[in-house]
Design goal:
Length: about 475
């Protein structure tokens, strides 16, 4: 019998009160893996009560002990490394090595939280006035929640949960209902830590539970990662309800290749950036803009090398690329490829209709390469979230920057060049939150904030790094005189 995933509330696995279920399929085999409950406002309320009830005890737990819990958590994730990676393959469809990369990145976020005794320290001044000292104290701010996407179902929750609780807050996670098994194993490990009941809670579901979190008066703030239209809804709803919010949205990421770039390294990086995780990454390269003479060379090299990428079942170690998340995602991506052709692009490699032997009904889209993509067209401007790379030509470096800056997204942009002047200008003038110089995937490490601009981010303080400490704490200024 297919299992129904439970919620984790107040230190216990419990059935959701809601009887509505969302099926979870392996996108390669089409096997029904589990049912995910579509939790309601009542389910959310149970979790919020538990988190609120746990807050006072948890905030007064010594910070070194809170850091130790995170240290133990890291050990458990390392011990379960392969099991987690395999679950990611099953429910998401990505290749096993990509899954391992996701778990490795997740561990970096736990490492960051282990440093909380240093990160939460604040400052002060003696004798700010005669006999008066002034200091800043950082305190946890209450109950926080995160609403997370399907594409990095293990890593993205850990951008938030470890730091939030290490700072002394209590926490509720609402993961994507498309990939609830990775968060189930995450909470199995959290359960082994013997944290005080209610410190961490898991509510599974879709829009009803997300909405209930945003409207609950006892939640201080929400961290969100997902598509831009939903990020905007989250930002507006949370601010209307007086909550802190960091809403990280979608992306269209551009890579500019200058004629002086090392072409071999550029192509290798572009391949990884465009087709890794079947393009289902917020940092995926959607467009390569080749400047002048670089165009023909890049087109020829990409054409040769894209054909060598092996699409196959994620648990097969030789596969470079797995499936996309679902059949509806496949149909949406294929429609966008057709749109690109209708808009006048040259379809060099078509990933539609590929067949993977033994997995004929899976949600496969092969690596796709479009060339001569027109400025302003859908493929030049809109997120595909699939394994499709658009190649554009710019007559000059300046034109490449114009193309990038006219995007309504501002997540990441990279340049490949050996010219320091252009590299500096790119860092200086390109409007994107993460800039790569001779780097295909400009992914900030856990100790740096994840930069994003324009429609890729709604809020003030970003996820990760020093911003996350600001987001999850309240500052209190103490002014003292002792006579
Ligand atoms: P999504 O926006 O559909 O869903 C994200 C989360 O929001 C899920 O938990 C979902 O249940 C919930 N949700 C959906 N509609 C909602 C609504 N109307 N109200 C409240 N909650 C709602 O995103 P997805 O398809 O799961 O993930 C892919 C998207 O995430 C892509 O656009 C990708 O670029 C983006 N993403 C961004 C980052 C980043 O760091 N900026 C990282 C990963 C993914």
């Amino acid at each position: 019998m297919t299992k129904t995933i439970k919620n984790y509330v107040n230190g216990e696995w419990i059935d959701a009160l809601s009887s509505d279920l969302i099926p979870v399929y392996d996108p390669a085999t089409c096997e029904l893996l589990a049912n995910c409950p579509d939790s309601t406002a009542q389910d959310v309320d149970l979790a919020v009560k538990a988190a609120k009830g746990a807050f006072n005890e948890w905030r007064s737990t010594p910070i070194l002990s809170r850091a130790q819990y995170m240290h133990h958590f890291k050990v458990l994730v390392e011990e379960n490394f392969e099991d987690i990676s395999k679950i990611l393959v099953k429910e998401h469809g990505k290749a096993i090595d990509e899954s391992r990369g996701e778990v490795r990145r997740a561990i970096e976020s736990i490492d960051f939280a282990i440093s909380v005794p240093v990160l939460m320290r604040s400052d002060g001044l003696e004798d700010i006035s005669s006999g008066i000292d002034e200091t800043t104290l950082r305190q946890p701010a209450g109950v926080f929640a995160a609403i997370t996407p399907f594409n990095f179902p293990f890593m993205v929750p850990l951008w938030f949960l470890p730091t939030a609780i290490a700072c002394g807050n209590t926490f509720i996670l609402k993961p994507s209902p498309q990939t609830p098994l990775s968060t189930e194993i995450l909470f199995e490990m959290l359960d082994e830590l013997d944290l005080p009941e209610g410190v961490v809670n898991l509510v599974n579901g879709g829009v009803p539970s997300a909405t209930a979190l945003m409207e609950h008066p006892d939640i201080t703030g929400i961290s969100f990662v997902g598509s831009s239209p939903v990020a905007k809804i989250i930002y507006e709803t949370c601010t209307r309800n007086g909550k802190r919010v960091q809403a990280q949205g979608g992306a269209k990421n551009y890579i500019a290749v200058l004629p002086d770039a090392n072409m071999e390294a550029s192509v290798k990086n572009i391949l990884g950036a465009a087709y890794g995780c079947a393009g289902q990454r917020c940092l995926a390269a959607g467009v390569a803009i080749a400047v002048g003479d670089a165009y023909d060379q890049l087109k020829d090299e990409l054409t040769k090398q894209v054909q060598n990428l092996k699409v196959g079942y994620g648990l097969d170690e030789t596969s470079h690329m797995g499936t996309v998340i679902s059949d509806s995602a496949k149909q949406r991506i294929e429609a966008m490829i057709q749109q690109g052709v209708d808009d006048g692009a040259e379809l060099i490699i078509d990933g539609r209709n590929i067949v993977v032997e033994g997995y004929e009904n899976g949600s496969w889209v092969g690596p796709t390469l479009l060339a001569d993509v027109k400025r302003g067209s859908t493929m030049a401007t809109e997120e595909v979230f699939g394994p499709v790379l658009s190649l554009m030509k710019a007559d000059s470096y300046e034109e490449a920057v114009e193309i990038i800056n006219e995007s309504h997204y501002g997540n990441a942009a990279s340049i490949f060049t050996n010219n320091g002047k252009y590299a500096r200008d790119f860092k200086y003038n390109v409007n994107a939150g993460n800039i790569g110089v001779n780097i295909g995937v400009a992914a900030p490490s856990a100790s740096f904030p994840f930069g994003r601009q324009k429609d890729s981010f709604f809020g003030d303080l970003h996820g990760q790094g020093s911003d996350s400490i600001e987001f999850y704490t309240e500052r209190k200024i103490i002014i003292e005189r002792w006579v």
